[in-house]
Amino acid sequence: MLGASLLFASMLRAEPAASPDDLQKQVNEIRTAAPRTAEGRREADAKVRALLDAELPKVVVAQVLTEQALGYARLFAAWTRHAEAVQLARKAWTTDAPKLPIALVGIPAAYQVKDHQSAWFFAVGVKPTIPNEVSTMTMIYSAYLADDAFSYNGYQETLDMLTGWSTVVAGVADTAEGYTVAQQTLARIWQAKSDLHGAAGDAAASLKALKDGMAAVALPAAKRGLEASYTQANVVGKPAPGLEVTHTFGNFTSLEALRGKVVILDFFAHWCGPCKASFPDLRDMYADLKGRGIEIVHATRLYGSFGAERDLTPEQELQKMTGFVKDNGLVWPVVYVSADDYKDYGVSGIPHIVLIDAEGKVVRHKIGYSPATFAEFRKQVEGLLAAAGR
What we know:
Layout: H1 2-13, H2 20-33, H3 38-55, H4 66-78, H5 82-93, H6 99-112, H7 116-125, H8 131-152, H9 155-170, H10 176-199, H11 203-216, H12 220-235, E1 247-249, E2 262-267, H13 273-289, E3 294-300, H14 314-327, E4 334-336, H15 339-344, E5 352-356, E6 362-367, H16 371-387
Parallel strand pairs: 2-3, 3-4
Antiparallel strand pairs: 1-4, 2-5, 5-6
Helix pairs in contact: 2-3, 2-4, 4-5, 4-6, 5-6, 6-7, 6-8, 7-8, 8-9, 8-10, 9-10, 10-11, 10-12, 11-12, 13-16
């Protein structure tokens, strides 16, 4: 009895959790006060984490009031406790609150814990009626639901979902703002259809979806991504286009001269964070596989700046690149190429790697960087070396 009494007393003395509004206000104040630098953001992230570590363990999720559920859901998602965030978002769904803000928390959190049922529960419950809502939900579909839909709902149901979404988009296209959003959204839908066909192994249908999308989307700015994707897809399986090289660091004559080797052509920039983050993995792969016949070629262009320095002449920028190459251990060729080369390979974002086999044909494009995706990419490189008898 004494133990139970002490436990009850300690529960009474336990400090209650701060309200979600108060916690969110503190989080916002931390982020607003932080310097707008990488170090400032890291320090702010650490302070926010410490705050949430101190406060959110006090929250009993099952006892959260429905009117506080969305606020706590956002905080639990920021705390990377995604299962609890989903549970709280579902509780918030039972209120009369607008559904879109809840879905914007619930869908990404459900995606993180592979809770397909909840992700689709939130998705189908949102009925956007204005351009911004349509645009936002389309980005959510593209970022989280397109791939998930294929594995969870199957090919045809996902295709039907994307086609149905086109109808929703058409309903907001009758104003200037709505037209722009509708065009951008339509482009994303066609891209998602192409990705879906590609995931199903139908390369011809994937290419056709991009071509149909370019015909359906009239706004030039909206169709640029489709054009880039079409170029990327269209060059796969064909000889790699040559490069118009204007300046070279290291020994490089042409891609043609590298026939017999597996080539990693990597479009990058000196200011690109993900590009620089990939350098250690590239260095390790090069050291391990150079003897088996790989070559890396980094391709870039003039930007007229370097770091904080602006309005540089080409000669000044190239001089800066000399130090950059040395400081980052880029022991392979670094070449400056033309705008047409970017266009020929469909480069619209960097880092953009083009993998070229020993016969000089493009095998695939890899856009962006993460350690996990690079590990998968390296396995493919090693497979091409093995196929070439290396």
